[in-house]
Specification:
The complex is a heterodimer.
Chain A: H1 7-10, E1 20-24, H2 28-40, E2 46-49, H3 55-58, E3 67-70, H4 81-89, E4 93-98, H5 103-112, E5 116-119, H6 124-135, H7 143-151, H8 162-174, H9 177-184, H10 188-203, H11 210-222, H12 227-231
Parallel strand pairs in A: 1-2, 1-3, 3-4, 4-5
Chain B: H1 3-39, H2 47-69, H3 76-95, H4 113-121, H5 126-146, H6 151-217, H7 220-229, H8 237-256, H9 263-277, E1 281-288, E2 290-291, H10 295-310, E3 315-322, E4 327-333, E5 348-355, E6 358-365, E7 375-376
Parallel strand pairs in B: 1-3
Antiparallel strand pairs in B: 2-7, 3-4, 4-6, 5-6
Classes of the chains: A alpha/beta, B alpha+beta.
Chain lengths: 237, 381
């Protein structure tokens, strides 16, 4: 995401302040790995480990964390969309961290208002930027989510421009914004802009959530997208 | 070997046997039974009962004649009714038979009903015919023992039974042998068929192996020969790279003949496996659905992956994005400089982007309608 967008200040956070995140994951190794990545990040990110106790996200130090890193399947094969919705409805900024790569789940999480959807194959290269983006209230689109978005053929999906699809596709396959920029002859910042526009379009459809409406409002304020472009969805035939 | 051919053989034999048996039985029942009934009509207490019994037997024979002409067999229900009718006719005839006349020419039904029953049971297992004949004979015996039989009566009954049971039994045995013969003939045909199929398969796989060998001879065999005669040094990185590429090609070649839902992904997995064994972390991700590309196109699509993976140092990502009009295979790895392969088929294009030592090679194929075979469903890695 656009790391230096004016939205940083809109989210009421200055660059120097320490970001705190809380992780809910029943696998101790995952939590330990994420803790290591967070402490090695520059600047470091403080991590609260809630284990598999969802209550610790709502009370204690977890309640004040800027970002919730949420394992969607605390109970195997039963994705907890209900808990995700409750967190989002309470204004929490959620990164879904899942071991599954199926597209429908990824898109559903985004529709519910998660700011990022990462698969556990996607390591610190994506998780750390995702935490920083989420702390600012901004979405982060990892390659796996990009793949889900380009393969999305649901009737209510937003209409993406050719260039947006091209960038999303290239980001999915190359997994490196520098390579995408070099290939398409644009800057990394422009790559970010196209990906951000896609997320704004997705935030504008489906279920209403605070994180999503903030995203749309900010994108309109910043001129990232126009109202006409937003209202141009595939269902409006 | 088809069940139909086996059934045909059996049907031909059965038909001939049925026809022959029916003719014998008609001869017996009409030529021997009918004159006896008519000649002794005056000596029966209820002549009408004897005529009725005869009519039942005649109608069962008529039924068999109709079925035979139509090349049909007795249905399960119809067969049960016919057997019951024949036994009932036998019982009716004995009930109204003058006492002490068992197994004489007055007792016409003794030598007629056995044959009629046999006709109905000819294509059943032997035990059915035996059970029927025994039941018929016991009916006659029951009539005999109601009076106090003398030695002459018993001797007559015993000798009569030999003919009444023995002759139809011979025919039934022949029918059983025919059945087993036809099964053997069908089995022999099946065996011939199986051997022919095996020969055809062996021939085809031999042809395929020769073709594969021809394909490998251009690249793999010179490499192996060079390694064998010492002209190529295994410690040379360029040779190591060639070996890695050839290993990938061989894996791909073996994978090409597998029957899988998505051959492109299947072959990519095999290509990735070679790098995986070297300790390179390979991710394979796919999105979308695409028509199955022909083998030549699949080789063009996988060749850049082989080249890039051959020198990948630590990590690689293979991604496939497909649709009805475009299939794209991308490989990103820390491979340094890689030669760009030249696609062989039309409609395939390779693009390369390099950033430091990271290489991104993308192959795109635009299917034209005649090139595609059947659609392949998506299988995410």
């Amino acid at each position: 995401m656009a790391a230096d967008s004016p939205a940083d200040h809109a989210a009421g956070r200055t660059a120097g302040e320490l970001i705190t995140a809380v992780i809910v994951d029943d696998h101790a190794a995952i939590a330990a790995g994420v803790r290591a990545w967070c402490s090695e990040a520059v600047p470091p990110i403080a991590l609260v480990d809630a284990g598999d106790r969802l209550a610790d996200v709502w009370t204690g130090p977890g309640a004040d964390a800027d970002v919730v890193i949420f394992d969607l399947e605390l109970v195997p094969r039963r994705p907890d969309f209900g808990e995700l919705r409750r967190l989002v409805d309470n204004g929490r900024r959620v990164i879904v961290y899942s071991q599954h790569t199926d597209d429908a789940t990824a898109i559903k999480c985004v529709d519910l208002g998660a700011l990022a959807y990462l698969t556990k194959r996607e390591g610190p290269d994506h998780l750390v930027p995702a935490i920083r983006s989420a702390a600012r209230g901004e979405p982060y689109t990892a390659p796996s989510l990009s793949g889900a978005l380009i393969a999305d053929d649901a009737p209510g999906r937003p209409r993406l421009s050719q260039r947006e699809t091209e960038v999303l596709r290239a980001w999915f396959v190359a997994s490196s914004k520098e390579l995408v920029a070099a290939k398409l002859n644009i800057t990394v910042k422009t790559v970010d802009t196209y990906i951000a526009r896609v997320r704004v379009k997705y935030a504008n459809v489906g279920r209403a959530a605070r994180t999503k409406s903030e995203l749309v409002g900010r994108a309109l304020d910043d001129g990232l997208i126009t109202l006409a472009e937003l209202n141009d969805t595939t269902t409006a035939l | 070997m088809s069940e139909a051919a086996e059934e045909m053989t059996r049907a031909q034999l059965r038909h001939g046997l049925r026809l022959a048996t029916l003719l014998i039985v008609l001869g017996t029942v009409c030529g021997q039974g009918l004159p006896n009934v008519l000649r002794h009509l005056g000596s029966y207490p209820v002549p009408l009962a004897q005529l009725a019994a005869y009519a039942v037997l005649a109608s069962v024979l008529a039924g068999e004649a109709v079925l035979l002409l139509r090349r049909r067999t007795w249905g399960r229900l119809l067969r049960q009714i016919a057997v019951a009718a024949v036994l009932a006719a036998s019982v009716l005839s004995y009930v109204t038979l003058p006492e002490g006349r068992t197994s004489t020419s007055v007792d016409w039904v003794f030598g007629a009903a056995n044959w009629v029953g046999l006709v109905v049971l000819l294509d059943r297992p032997l035990r059915a015919a035996v059970a029927f004949l025994v039941a018929h004979d016991l009916t006659a015996l029951a009539h005999l023992v109601t009076i106090d039989p003398n030695r002459g009566d018993l001797a007559r009954f015993a000798t009569g039974s030999v003919t009444v049971i023995g002759l139809p039994l011979c025919v039934a045995v022949v029918a059983a042998v025919f059945n087993s013969l036809s099964a053997a003939a069908a089995a022999a045909r099946a065996e011939i068929e199986r051997v022919r199929v095996a020969e055809a398969v062996a021939e085809e796989s031999h042809r395929r192996r020769q073709q594969r060998l021809a394909e490998l001879s251009a690249t793999t065999i010179p490499l192996l020969e060079g390694l064998a005669d010492g002209s190529l040094r295994p410690e040379d990185p360029a040779i190591q790279r060639r070996c890695a590429i050839e290993a990938g090609r061989m894996r791909r070649l073996f994978a090409e003949t597998d029957t899988v839902a998505n051959p492109l992904l299947h072959e990519l997995r095999h290509c990735a496996d070679v790098a995986d064994r070297k300790g390179v972390v390979v991710e394979l991700d796919a999105r979308g659905q695409w028509p199955t590309p022909p083998v030549a196109v699949r080789r063009d699509l996988t060749e850049p992956v082989l080249r890039v993976l051959a020198t990948a140092a630590s990590r690689a990502r293979i991604a496939v994005v497909g649709g009805a009009d475009l299939v794209s295979v991308s490989v990103v790895a820390d491979s340094g400089e890689v030669d760009v392969p030249e696609p062989v088929t039309r409609g395939v294009h390779v693009e390369t982007v390099t950033n430091d030592d990271t290489v991104w090679m993308e192959v795109r194929w635009q299917p034209t309608p005649q090139q595609t075979t059947q659609p392949a469903a998506l299988q995410a890695s």
